[in-house]
Design brief:
The chain has eight helices and no strands. With 182 residues, the chain is mainly alpha-helical. The protein is globular, with a radius of gyration of 17 Å.
Length: 182
Amino acid sequence: MIRLPRKEDINVYDTLDERSAVRSFLGKTREEIQQLLPGKYESLQEDLAFMGPVAFAYYAPAWEEFCRTRPSDDPEGTEDIVRWTLCIISIRCNGLEDETPGSIAAMRRMLSWCEGFYNSPEGRTYFTEEARFWGYAEPLLSTPPELQQALEECAALRRRLGETSIISAQAKDEAPSLPNFR
């Protein structure tokens, strides 16, 4: 059995953000965190972003399961979770030299899920409807601007994590369904 992260695994540099993560996570199992996520994901994602890499590698699967079990009929809610997930990865990429192989692997899985949403029919439909709502003239003829920006952000994070995108530029009708983290 993998042990629960200790206080020093969560709070490595004694920052305010790490102290917050200690208050939220210390002594809790992945399963307990997973139960908290539906109502507190906005605050818990920030704690995940700033906690130490050993603790992140331990708790990331709870976030991954929360993402993986999102209802497929709620693309707007899923898009919010994708943005929070990208925020976690982006913040953690600022200190990649301190990350562990386990924490980097977790970030790669999370990023793959984000890319999967952005390239899925659900994600493309969401962004097309958003583009139409905001009055873009030709949302159906090209990739909506916000989707293109999101895909570019994913590609940049993928490069920072030291690998190329697992999802190549595909035709809209060939886009994969949302991948599982497993």
